[in-house]
Structures
1.
Amino acid sequence: MKSNNSFRSALNCYIKHPEKYPNDVLYYDSDFTVVYDKYPKAQVHLLVLPRDLIKTTQSPFLVFNYKNDPDKVFQNQLLLCIEKTKPIAIQQLVIKFPFLIQQSLNFDEYFKVGFHAIPSLSNLHVHVISKDNLSERLKTKKHYISFNSPFLLNLYDLIKNNALNQRDINSDEFFNIAKEMKKIMAQDMKCWKCGLNFRNDFKKLKDHLVIEANAIYKEDREKIKS
Amino acid sequence: MKSNNSFRSALNCYIKHPEKYPNDVLYYDSDFTVVYDKYPKAQVHLLVLPRDLIKTTQSPFLVFNYKNDPDKVFQNQLLLCIEKTKPIAIQQLVIKFPFLIQQSLNFDEYFKVGFHAIPSLSNLHVHVISKDNLSERLKTKKHYISFNSPFLLNLYDLIKNNALNQRDINSDEFFNIAKEMKKIMAQDMKCWKCGLNFRNDFKKLKDHLVIEANAIYKEDREKIKS
DNA sequence: GAATCATAAC
DNA sequence: GAATCATAAC
Ligand SMILES: [Zn+2]
Ligand SMILES: [Zn+2]
Ligand SMILES: [Zn+2]
Ligand SMILES: [Zn+2]
């Protein structure tokens, strides 16, 4: 056990008093808060935080688990909040790349939405993140893999009644998940776009991500021209 | 003993074939090569490499050691090469900060010249480095301390007949030096300009270095205006 | 010399 | 979650 776990509650302030952090909070209502990730791992990286005091404490594996009698009302509220977050995320991308045209951007082409299988921060949070992974804050293999492997639990996969959320969630199962994820973290790094294998060469991957970002964010402009 | 020490000879190509590396080499003659440090730890960071095949293998403590009958001809050649390097370094700084006026810059106010007490690369090299330590490549406490402590052997101090170069250079003495330097590396990080103590908070130091660099490189412009 | 990985302490 | 420190392998 760690001596001081207060950092694990770093997001709690945003669900408790979203009105106090106008520089960090992009949107809030009675049920959700949307904030910038303080250490963004891509050009756009937002967090969607359920404000419900029970839900916020739950594991992403548990909160939608079928054996746990999933709260369909909550699921639909969350999906609705994600729909509200999509244009916000797109707008953030357009701020970074003014040549992009907001109305023509397909969210699914540019973004991913999901939970980390083993979050470090205890308040339940959905990552809404652009696919580029172009960021100074992306500093380690673990950062990259955590968004480009089964460590990222796609929100829509999780909500479906599939293998992901039919696991028995007991401490044995959490131990198994931890073991799986450790294996996943040890795998090679591959480009999210073209699949090129960078093995453990993080620096080369970083250089390549610049090229891919230039391509996707310019390509769109070219498409618009033609 | 390390299994593969080839990285220690990374600078050898520049003294062997300076003409082959026009992108890296700023100046060379029959006795010296001046190159960009490949991982600059400040806005301007150059290396002066003696091309003599004996001198290049020597330790900075040994090459000027009085008990070792110092080669005064070599010393003077090196000092002359440093004099040639000074305007080059100043020019590099002006390229980064075009508001600076080349002719009015006092080298000693903006730069340091010296050896690392315990170099990682085996070819003898003098660092000519701007004092700012503002660089993305400055990533660790050791990087910073290595230029802001007795780990940096000031060239002119070393040439003087003083305590620094009167040490008996045997393996016992090298062991003592290594122990001293380890202590030095464990000390707090302090701002090179104002002396503010950042202890082990490297991130805060980095932020502060931005402020100090803005001040020194703008200050000069103000002086010129008045 | 840099970079990857593991490990505390917060 | 980030950041400091230590340790291999190159
Ligand atoms: Zn997380
Ligand atoms: Zn690619
Ligand atoms: Zn060196
Ligand atoms: Zn200062």
2.
Amino acid sequence: MVHAPGEEERVTHVDEAALERLRTRLQTYMVEKGLRSTAQRRLIIDTFFEGAPHMTIEELLQQVRGVDRGIGYATVYRTLKLLAECGVASERRFGDGLSRYELADDASSHHDHLICLSCGKIIEFEEPQIEALQDAIAEKYGFLVTSHKHEMYGECADCQRTKKSAASEGADGMRDGA
Amino acid sequence: MVHAPGEEERVTHVDEAALERLRTRLQTYMVEKGLRSTAQRRLIIDTFFEGAPHMTIEELLQQVRGVDRGIGYATVYRTLKLLAECGVASERRFGDGLSRYELADDASSHHDHLICLSCGKIIEFEEPQIEALQDAIAEKYGFLVTSHKHEMYGECADCQRTKKSAASEGADGMRDGA
DNA sequence: GTAACTGCAAAATCTTTGCAGTTCA
DNA sequence: TGAACTGCAAAGATTTTGCAGTTAC
């Protein structure tokens, strides 16, 4: 769980029932398509379900390699692609060039992101009024929305604080530095 | 201008005064940093300022090569990076793995995007109420927002219509074809 | 038994960088 | 003149793919 230390933890209370639903969906999909359950897949999938909310491929790989040293990039890529295909996971990119995956919105509720460009922290938020306005806009354009992405980039409270105290350390009793 | 044919064209009325401001900002930045104005840069920059709203690097390169066959990828990349550095352009990624650039928000007004996954069309929209809600959320988390991204993915009105008529063609007496 | 899966390494993309020659100021 | 710029090609980074061997069903 990578959440803002001082912040109350919003939104990421994963709903157990929804998690079960996702696992069932995956199960069904795999049976339908004649896909197999291998040790590697189980490990990757479990790690993904239980791990931090916005893991990169790299992070996930490192984590599964902690259990099974021999797992390769390709298997992780292929497995996450499988999860995305059946709607259990969504791929997200936050502009740092890395792909991250998160559980589909059924499990954690509908949410969007605040991303700190200083420390990389990702905070989730939820705002029903924004969702409502979005729907209105889509309707106005006759657009059928299947997914959306709403991200705000900037500096989190902690980093602002750190920067400010670093600045005042620099000299003496002066005020805020630019 | 890549806009929905039937749609009223929103937002992309570029404000000439703002455009001038951006050119001035660029000019100032280049002088400050001791950067030079070369024929290639001028061509790329003009093409970018006058071209379609969300060009990819590839598209921009093709367009400038129409004028000067010898321009290389690296120069386009470097020039757009320069524009982004001085706040004249912003890089955007819409999930197809390509970088696109658009003029900074000073020129066209604050806006966000509807992206059609069927035909790739990008529609811009503007919704002050959403901006206001965003600000409220950022404040709640003590977050200092420097930029944001709000995208809705789905199927545009045209593509829905096309798909529907394709479906009814399959059967009997259908109506309008796209 | 066989079709799906795995790991590896090679390939494919997109973007950045190093270099030698060119050009703006 | 000389630092900045350009084009090319090589290098990087991330993701995908081909293949030969392995394994689930």
3.
Amino acid sequence: MGKRKETITIYDVAREAGVSMATVSRVVNGNPNVKPVTRKKVLDAIERMGYRPNAVARGLASKKTTTVGVVIPDISYAFFAELTRGIEDIAKMYHYNIILCNSDLKKEKELQLTEALLEKQVDGLLFLGGKVTDEHREIFNGTDVPVVLAATRDEAKNARPFVTIDQVKAAKEATDVLIREGHERIGFLGGPLTDPLIGYPRYQGYREALEENGMSLDEDRVRLGNYRYHSGYDAARELLESEQAPTAIFAVNDEMAVGAIHAVQDLGKRVPEDVSIIGFDNIPLASQVRPLLSTVAVPMYDIGAVAMRLLTKYMNEETIEEDQVVLPYRLELRDSTRLKEI
Amino acid sequence: MGKRKETITIYDVAREAGVSMATVSRVVNGNPNVKPVTRKKVLDAIERMGYRPNAVARGLASKKTTTVGVVIPDISYAFFAELTRGIEDIAKMYHYNIILCNSDLKKEKELQLTEALLEKQVDGLLFLGGKVTDEHREIFNGTDVPVVLAATRDEAKNARPFVTIDQVKAAKEATDVLIREGHERIGFLGGPLTDPLIGYPRYQGYREALEENGMSLDEDRVRLGNYRYHSGYDAARELLESEQAPTAIFAVNDEMAVGAIHAVQDLGKRVPEDVSIIGFDNIPLASQVRPLLSTVAVPMYDIGAVAMRLLTKYMNEETIEEDQVVLPYRLELRDSTRLKEI
DNA sequence: CTGTTAGCGCCTTCAT
DNA sequence: ATGAAGGCGCTAACAG
């Protein structure tokens, strides 16, 4: 039962239209070297037979799949979901499809997924958010497929092109806001310091800000979490219940920052009257909380879009003027801090 | 410059290992019919030459791409991002990759993307969240590629398999919570009534709940938005500033519900003391707001996972016992309503 | 257990 | 402007 739809090929169309398959191929691919009448004949035959080109066969013959691979930590993070939207929009614009893979930031998964993507003959690869190790480089360098890093970077020489923001500087400016508000005890809610992409650089920015303002970094005011709301909540709660509790908190991402807001509130205090809080990223949540969260607005969508655009340039072998793009961020001072401008 | 890495094929490996390509193919595909020593020879050659199988060629020859297409409204919605995570996890488990496409719920895009995915010879297709029209059915029925609907359904005869929840019933139960709290003026924050997947059924549930409890549906207490936070905020604000303002609100999704919470608070009132609010979906935001949002917990991840699992069964031609899956939901009563159990 | 031989459906010179 | 023919790299019978 369920009679298999016998696949109809370019050859069938050719026969039906009374031309050669080369001609059919030409009209399908928009080659101008086809007489209008011939083209019409072919188009009609295609229409009549319901012909659907086989992209796999085309890929094998042409060595192009119009597909790019995207290795991402976790699509369920608002940050990466937004970024992916930027990628996909630009990909669509250039007629590429994306194969999406979640790596959970696990090196082994990243490597394995990258391999799988290359086997699938993707025309390009977007690598998001993971640390680039020698093993990564070995794979990246061992292929002609262009690779662009997004929301991460590789400091190594001969590094891959990337699109990101200046994490340290942004973190420093965020901390500066708190300093200028006059706070002397500024808490820090971070991620793993072993994370070279977010955790460490944002910590570094915090530290530099304090140091440049002659303030000492007190380890007791540093708490490390996993970037999630609850870890932010818990860490902030600890901080606030300690002696010498901070009067301001810089959280390295918005989820943790919102957790901190609620920790403050649950303790019967107020933001920003009692404790100022600033986050990082500017995910939708930041403007869906009371008070509205002050934060570093990271152009998530743009990072994805620009990275994808850059990748298309490599795939088309266009000349690249700028292969290491540092996008601007912006301080978005809302209601969880008192300072309204800097 | 940039000497092209000459692609090394199964044929090269065969020569290097001193066997035929068929044998190489066998070891690459884990065919047991290979003598251990031979296998080792081949494996060594593969290792030595850095051979990477070409999945496109394999796809053409085997007519399987181990790739499934996913048409989704918008990956940047928490709801769909979560669902996609479920899809991808199960896909990975069964060694499939997913090609992700955002449709923005536009019919034309959905159709065009579906076509493109079929051209790419995906082994299966997951269609999320859009309304299924005759044009969709025409494409779906015109191919042997199995199609599973997720978070949507098609009432038509000979319909596609689907995985979803009972929207009407869930909406009714959510409204019931408010009714049992004794509210007589229950506002409704909905989506377009022309949306047959969310907007209409959830409205219907609201209406049925009222009717079954002998309450009349007052159109003045119905506000329609676009599912986003701000539209929820604005609509709730209108509702609350009207005469005969509702004392409880059912919002058809969490974003709007949280908008409503803030509208109430910005008006100087309290949730749930002055106004009870219940949402729908249980996205992370629901537990990242104060008060914690009571809502209908939809198993987003599971919908994706189950749909993908179902699809694998079709792709493997396993026998399907249940092709129309209605997953259970759960009322998650937190702090934005007063009733704690039902 | 291993090798041979056809394709899979299409693109792409190269002729005509 | 069109056709003929040779791959693209691999799988899948079918022999042996």
